[in-house]
Specification:
single chain; alpha/beta; Rossmann fold; Methionyl-tRNA Fmet Formyltransferase, Chain A, domain 2; 2 domains; seven-stranded mixed β-sheet; seven-stranded antiparallel β-sheet; 8 helices; 29% strand
Length: 315
Amino acid sequence: MKKLRIVFMGTPDFAVATLKTLVENNYNIVGVITAPDKPAGRGRKLNESAVKKYAKSQELTVLQPTNLKNENFLEELKGLHANLQIVVAFRMLPKVVWQMPEYGTFNLHASLLPNYRGAAPINWAIINGETKTGVSTFFIDDKIDTGDMILQETIEIDSNENAGNLHDKLMSSGSQLVLKTVKSIEKDKVKTNPQKEPKAIKTAYKLNRDNCKINWNDSIENIYNRIRGLSPYPAAWCTLINGDDELDIKIYKVEKEFDSHSLEPGTIIASKKELKVAVTNGYIIIEEIKLPGKRAMDVKSLLNGYAFHENAKML
């Protein structure tokens, strides 16, 4: 049995679940590497990462380098004498870092690799209408998410769940997959396989303003999947034209209604209780929405105080 000295690298909530699982299973975490504190909110108060907050609660050693190639950081990292590094939702590591420990550096990725390599695998799996995804552990190499596979687990995607729900499912199953991976390394029973490169690989592109915009000329299924795949964060958006108002709004929750009609895509139909948008082959029924400067609200609350003009449109 190998005696492990683990350095854990991660930043958001998704990574906390794995670190917590390792701590609760009595693994020796000799250091935690996370992002530097960032100013947040109106007071620009420095905000600690979710991983840092948890690590401090467990009295773990925390390092927050701005530059992973900085000589002082590399000396501090070497001084921890780790023989295994685990990465969950962190940034790309330089070779000098991932090659450092004797037993290697492995990463947890929230997809069934090699598909959905990249920054936003949870969102894109839903946006693309997948019915299953999963979590993968692999040893890091010098490219992004391409290293030799260790373990993988498949998760079903429900037809109506959003990225937030799927995130939580993958966070839980991912923490258990890391635990299994660590146990196999500890017992010297780890087996790896090179990733097979499919001809048509699907990529988890970084989310930006352009790929979060709703195209009301798209199919009803694609619009529905984009909205739930971007909910609750960063949220799908579009422009609402309502009389003289031209507002960029966010849409968080919708239903779809298949129907034949002759309305132009983007046409709004509003009543006292319902707000829907005409699309090809039916309507998108909006259930949760956010106007600029307002909080997200259910549509009934919106319709109590906001009037839609007869020619209102979504663009």
